[in-house]
Write a structure and sequence with these properties.
This protein is α+β, with helices and mostly antiparallel strands. The protein is about 25% helix and about 10% strand. It has 3 domains: about 80 residues, Ubiquitin-like (UB roll) (Roll), CATH 3.10.20; about 90 residues, no CATH class; about 45 residues, Alpha-Beta Plaits (2-Layer Sandwich).
């Protein structure tokens, strides 16, 4: 067993437990996009960063890949951590402005402006689809290609894969494909309308515990009024 402190709370976890798992055990929220239970940790989105250590030796690490260490002191929402997360969310929002998942995360973390040029990409290279295809579907039909700005996900040489079963698992786990928002202008990229807890449907008295089930979402229309 390993003893560590997270946000001033002393806790004990099994050896091999990641900082993300330890924080979740304590009920401490840490946002993440690339992490998914059942898949190998990848640490690509960097949203789950936490601060470890003290003083000049303190540093940021990805909690989904960093294992718990004896006597480690962790902070999940320090000023440095919050600043890093907001910057990451701005970059993700600029890369994939139509992702409702990213928009809601940005709104929840009080990101109020988008300072970077929008690129309108359909992929944030989180690797969820690649790991799902390899580890859960046992197919390895897709993978990463290229490096740097040329890095992308697909089949080798863009040739149709003979092992792909068109199961749709890659799209099911993709944070960019799950839900798309029609608003993508910089000034409307963080509307926060879909994050409202009050369902904007006419039957809200009947469905008090449900979010709005309208499709497409009418939150955007409400924001405009």
């Amino acid at each position: 067993m390993i003893n560590l402190t997270i946000n001033g709370i002393e806790t004990t976890v099994d050896k091999g437990t990641t900082l993300l798992e330890a924080a979740q055990f304590l009920g401490l929220p840490i946002p993440t996009l690339c992490h998914m239970e059942g898949l190998t940790p990848y640490g690509a989105c960097r949203l789950c960063v936490v601060e470890i250590g003290e003083g000049s030796r303190a540093r940021l690490v990805t909690s989904c890949t960093y294992p718990a260490e004896e006597g480690l002191k962790v902070r999940t929402a320090s000023r440095r951590v919050v600043k890093a997360r907001k910057m990451i969310l701005e970059l993700l929002l600029a890369s994939c402005p139509q992702s409702k998942v990213i928009q809601d995360l940005a709104s929840a973390h009080e990101v109020r402006q988008q300072r970077f040029r929008q690129e309108y990409e359909n992929c944030i290279l989180c690797g969820r689809c690649v790991r799902m295809c390899e580890e859960q579907m046992m197919a390895k039909a897709i993978g990463f290609r290229g490096r740097g700005e040329q890095r992308s996900i697909g089949t080798p040489f863009d040739v149709k894969s003979e092992v792909c079963r068109t199961c749709g698992g890659c799209m099911y786990v993709c944070p960019a494909c799950q839900l798309r928002c029609t608003y993508n202008e910089p000034e409307r990229a963080i509307c926060g309308g879909c994050a409202n807890l009050s369902p904007p449907c006419i039957e809200k008295e009947k469905f008090k515990d449900m979010m709005c089930y309208m499709h497409p979402c009418v939150a955007c229309e409400i924001v405009d009024r």
